[in-house]
Amino acid sequence: MEEEKLDIEKEEKKEHKKIKKPKKIVHNEEDVQRIKELEEEVLKAKADNINYRRRKDEEVSRMLEFANEDMAKDILPIVDNFERAINLDDTNLNDELSKFLSGFKMIYCHLVEVLEKYDIKTIDGVNVPFDPTIHQGVLTEKVEGIEPGMVVEVMQKGYILKGKVIRPAMVKVSE
């Protein structure tokens, strides 16, 4: 056993002697400058990579936040149609139309609850100053007692999804 250990130690020493120690490299001024340039390029590439990852993360979070926007835009005309149908109702609750429209009201209320669940809110519009970021002025009308630039009537409701206008309110504005 001891002979084997000695043989192994001798082999290790031979191998160790075969390994060349690195020579001292003398750099001239051009080499030093080139190394600095390469180091700067590596740092810039790392910074670009970090910025790219950050932008991608922000983009993905935005996409997830507004993933329901297209679906909401498709549902809004349906909500509008329900509102028009409900407005046909009169005070006579005994006729067939009123009974039919009471079902419409239940469906409409459920749709509104679903919209609110997904943070889709209506834009309030009557008797507020006209704001082009949330209102779309369709008509103007001179109205006594109301100052110019105020919303007189909402012709079609507008909606906001998590602070982003997905459909501006179509309004009539006072002159």
- Known CATH architecture of the largest domain: Roll
Supply the CATH superfamily name of the largest domain. Head domain of nucleotide exchange factor GrpE
Q: Structural class, from helix and strand content?
A: alpha+beta
Strand order of the largest sheet: 1-4-5
Mean of residue pLDDT values: 85
- Report the CATH topology name of the largest domain: Nucleotide Exchange Factor Grpe, Chain A, domain 2
Q: Which band does the percent of strand residues land in?
A: 15-25%
What's the number of structural domains?
2
User: Uncertain spans, ≥5 residues at pLDDT below 50?
Assistant: none
**Strand and helix order:** HHHHEEEEEE
Number of helices: 4
Determine and state the CATH class of the largest domain. Mainly Beta
According to DSSP, the number of beta strands is 6
Share of helix among residues? 40-55%
* Main sheet makeup: 3 strands, antiparallel
The gross shape turns out to be elongated
Alpha-carbon Rg, integer: 37 Å
Distance between the termini: 109 Å
